[in-house]
Amino acid sequence: MSMARSMSVCLRLPTSTLFEGQAERLTAVAPTGAFGLLPNHIDFVSALVPSVMTLRLVDGSEAIFGIDEGLLVKKGHSVDVAVLRGVLGDDLSSLKHTVESRFVQVDEEERQARSALSRLEADMVRRFAELKTPAP
């Protein structure tokens, strides 16, 4: 593997790509604690916990993401990150507000979907029970 000054990073959500670009450094948090990756780091795989992930981009700027649980895979000069939920923030204070509003909204939508699914399951069980009942 040749020495590189940057690595290709792709941050994916279940339905879209949140970020794709070149970075000089990445920091994230695993179940065992925080870690950092540089372009020439050995190949690496890690689970991620809900936390803040930062990227130092090649232009010197920093990208800050609020992420949910996921998986990070570094192979060569490429890093692929797959997370359940994620948002890009301008700074830590705005990121906190964005994470709270979006993740709480998603949690409420998931709760409503689970409730609807439970009602459908109960209705299906009731209808199957009615099928077993002999006609008078």
TrEMBL record:
Keyword flag Iron: no
Stored NCBIfam families: alt_F1F0_F1_eps
Subunit structure: F-type ATPases have 2 components, CF(1) - the catalytic core - and CF(0) - the membrane proton channel. CF(1) has five subunits: alpha(3), beta(3), gamma(1), delta(1), epsilon(1). CF(0) has three main subunits: a, b and c.
The entry's keywords: ATP synthesis, Cell membrane, CF(1), Hydrogen ion transport, Ion transport, Membrane, Transport
Source taxon at top rank: Bacteria
Protein family per UniProt: Belongs to the ATPase epsilon chain family.
Every ATP synthase F1 complex delta/epsilon subunit N-terminal domain range: 7-83
SUPFAM superfamilies reported for this sequence: Epsilon subunit of F1F0-ATP synthase N-terminal domain
The keyword Ion transport is annotated on this UniProt entry: yes
Protein name: ATP synthase epsilon chain
Function: Produces ATP from ADP in the presence of a proton gradient across the membrane.
Record-linked Pfam families: ATP-synt_DE_N
Compartments in which it is found: Cell membrane; Endomembrane system
GO molecular function, one term: proton-transporting ATP synthase activity, rotational mechanism
InterPro entries registered for this protein in UniProt: Alt_ATP_synth_F1_esu, ATP_synth_F1_dsu/esu, ATP_synth_F1_dsu/esu_N, ATPsynth_dsu/esu_N
Lineage, opening ranks: Bacteria, Pseudomonadati, Pseudomonadota, Alphaproteobacteria, Rhodobacterales
Record GO cellular component, one term: endomembrane system
Membrane topology: Peripheral membrane protein
